[in-house]
Amino acid sequence: MTDTEKLVHREWSAAESTRRITITNPADGQELFAAPVASPAEVDTAVGAARSAAAEWARTAAAERAAAVHRAADAVAARADDLARLTTLEMGKPLGDARGGVDAGVGTLRQYAELGPVHRGRSLNGGFGATDLMVYEPRGVVAAITPWNDPVAVSCGLIGAALVTGNTVVYKPSERTPATGWLLARILSEHLPAGVLNLLLGDGAVGARLVEQPVDVVAHVGACATGRAIARAAAGTRTKVLLENGGNDPLIIDADVDPEWAAAQAALGAFANAGQICVSVERIYVHEAIADPFLAALAARAEALRMGPGLEAGTELAPLVDRRLREHVHGHVEQAVAGGAKLLAGGDVPEGPGAYYPATVLAGCTDDMAVMREETFGPVAPVAVVGTFDEALARAGQGEYGLAATVLTRDLAHAIRASRELPAGTVKVNNVFGGAPGGAAHPRRASGQGYGYGPELLDEMTQTKVVHLGAPPA
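That's the Succinate-semialdehyde dehydrogenase sequence above. Prediction below.
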C-alpha cells in the first residue's frame, strides 16, 4: 500500500501536501505507515470533481447505477480478507469481528443496489384531465465522513445509499483508519465513472474544510463534538445534515429475568469490540432482587475474557484504538472509584506496549459520575442497583443522549412501557444487539439527526419535487 495517493476524478495521484499522520498498531505500538493529509486545494478539487460529475450520474438510469453498485459489492467481497486485516491493524478489533464488518458492508451495498431502482414515487389525485406526480431526485454532492470503529460497514452504507439515488460522493474516512478507507475507495472506484467517488484523507481540519464547501449533504458518523461543529457550519449554507453521534445507552434489567442470562447480555453489550460501538451498553440499572448474582456473574465474565492482539486467534478483548482513548476510559473509571464506586473486575492499565484495557465492572455507581453521564466508549460496565422498574426507567431516560436503549424483562407491560417512554431512537427488548436487515436508525437529542440506515436513508439522500401534468387545450 502506498501512503501518497489520492483519488479525484477516478485518477490516483500523489498527494500534494507533505503533511502526514502516523498510524500505529494499537496491539504493539509499532508504526504502520504515514497517511497523507489533504491540502485545502485538494479538498476544493475533490468537491469540484464531484460537482462536475453530478449531472451525468443523476441522468444515468437507476438500473445502471444499481448494477455498478452490485459490481462494486462483489469486488469488496473479493477483497474482504484484505480489508478486515487492515481494519484490525489500524484500530485493533479481533480479525473475525473485522471480517464481520466487511461482510455487513457488502450486504448493505447489495441491499441498496436492490432498493435504488424501486425507490419511491407516487401520484396524487387531481382533476380528471391532469396528473400530479411526486418524484424523488438526487440532492447532488454528498460528503461522507465516517468513523474508525466499524469503518467498512458504515462507509458502505452511506456511500451505497448516496450512489444508488444518483448522488456523487466525496469520502473522508477517519484519520485513525485511513488505510482501510483508502483500500475501500480504490475497490469501489474501479466500478464507477470518473468523479462519482472521490477520496480525501486527513484529520479534522480536512473534514472542516470539506463541510465548508458547497456540498448538498453532509453525512457524518462519529463524535458528538464533530457533529455539533458540522451542524453549526451547515446552518449558514442550508446543507442537508445527517448525524449519528455519541450515545450513553442504558440497559435496564428487570427483577424477573435470569441473572446469568442478563450478565451474558450485559457483557456482550459492554465489552464487544472493547466497548467501541456506537450502541454499546454504557450504563446498567439492575433490580435489587437479582443484583448480587447478576454482579457476580458479570464480573466473572469480564475476568474470563481473553485479552490479546486482534490478529491472534482466540482473542476476545482486543486493544482500544489508541492510548489517547485509553486515558479517557481509565479517567472515567478512576473518577467513579474516587466517588465511591466499587471495582469488581478490571480497572487497571496493563503494563507493556499497546493500548489494552481490561473488561471492567463497577458497582455502586451514581448518576452524577462521568461513567454514567458521558460516553466512555471502552470495555466498562458501570452498574447501579434500583428498587423498582419505575426507578430504572426514570434514571435511564436522563441525560442528553438518545441513540439506543435496552430492557431485559419477562413482563410484557414493562417492555411496552420501556418502548414508549425511553427517549431513544432505538429501543431493544431482550437483546442488546441484533435487528432485522435493513432496519432504520433515527438518533435523538445530542446523538444526532436524520435516518442513518435502512430504506429511509434513501429518502434522506433525495429531495422531492411535485410535477403537475395538465392536458393541453383541445
